[in-house]
Amino acid sequence: MPAPAHHPGSRPDAPEPARPGGRGRLPEDARARMWAVVLLIVLATEVAPMQYTLVATATERIGHSFPSVGSDLSWMVIIIGLVGGATTPIIGKLGDLFGKRLLLVGGMLLFLVGSVVCATTHDWTLFLVGRAFQSTSFAITAVAASLLRDILPRKYVTIAVGALATGIGVSSLATPFLGGWLSDTWGWRSMFWFLVVYTALLLPLVALCVPESDVRVGQSLDWIGSVLLGAGAALILLYISEGQVWGWSRPSAWGYAAGGVALLLVFPAWERRAKDPIIDPDLLKAPKVSLLLAIGLFSQIMVGIQGYALAYMAQTDGKVVNDAVVAGVAQEAGTTPDQIAPAITFHGDISYALGFGLTALAVHLMTWQTVPSMVSGPAAGVIGKKRGLRLPYVWSLLLMTAAMGLYGFFHGSWQILLPIGIVFGLATGLYYGSDNNLVIEAVPEEQQGIAAGMLTLAESFGAAFGTAILTSILAAHPYRASMDDGTGHVSTFDIDQVFTDSGWTAGFFAAAVAGVIALGISLFMKSGRTPATGGQSADLPVAPAKLENA
Q1: Long-range contacts at 251-256 (CB < 8 A, ≥ 24 apart)
Q2: pTM as predicted
């Protein structure tokens, strides 16, 4: 393994990273063991999308168990992105300092504790604490990619990281069916117990069978930099997540964003003065890193909008919505639905509403999106090894953007959504199979964990921005009903949580705009044009001038 180089911004007298244990990389001739290790690591990272998929199926039922929380029920989802996004860079840095397998196992242990808390508690605050512990699933994925870089033979790194990016289908193929069955049969707590069992079975296997990285950074943790980065990210994510509810322009709301931006602006200034910066400031601003972070933000706006929109639209049932409105008005008027129905007129197009349950959603749409991504993720690694990672990366952004435009024009039936989903699945597989590999190629091994964490943070911002943009657009396109009381007086009212087709169309086009920006940025990339080396090129000495122009 090449010796780690001193990089711009590091102290020239800094000690070489310690290499305790001396395990190094897995031998190339032990392929069975090597792919078994990769499989264990990939299975460990499946908990990140799995907990999202499972919990999404039970949101309404969980709400019934905590009836007093009202609209605060959304915090069961918000807190995952908030805590996970804010802490992942710090956990990644701890992996650089103390060992990536150690942090992978520690993250799994915290996830296990959080799952137990969620499965057993009847207190809303404790439930949110459990969900906060589960947010370590973000860091598990970031640390896992860095670990694969350190322990695999270079020639297999890009392919393995590509497979890691899209998983093997446990979360995306099995859990949509499993979640509905568990919830219907034993209640929503059984899904958290499933996560407990899954993690408890996998945890000792990872601890015993996955070797530890021997890469260490010979420095202490920059606590001030960690607080500036984590707190700044948390405040901005909080504003993005809750701004629609609080009111975007209210000082009590945008004060969170202003505070977060201020902390993030102070962060690089502090890093230049810190004895042991959490990340090399010169490396962070180098185009080969900064462009990746910018593209990660805009690309995930598309992912955030698509993930929210497709499931929401497909599971909306137009007939059920209209019947519920008629029944509610009839109850208030003290009459029957049949008598009141002729007096009610609905305004807006909801022809997009497919009325799918979770199983139908998985069968008709999600499976067809997931399977192509499972193929294109490793394929991105193969292409990267032969022709460079920039090629699948740019193609992923082009296909993703095209899919957003197609969604905007055509989303009236599952037969149309299915082929567009295939395109989007291919795109996301290529994207996730390329982005972490591009970080591996760009960043020296002793800063791999923090760099992967910074990419995860940028992508968390993007997904949160995407959801916030979409919900703001939808709020301006409510589905409405009006009632004539028989005296010539007509009253009009919005139907809660139901939106017109024009709102979804505008949301997809907004995603396409974000995609065009991401694609435009990618065209300025100079990195990724040569065959990927599994990080070897990033571990070689780099002159400051070359770093700035990379």
Answers
A1: none
A2: 0.84
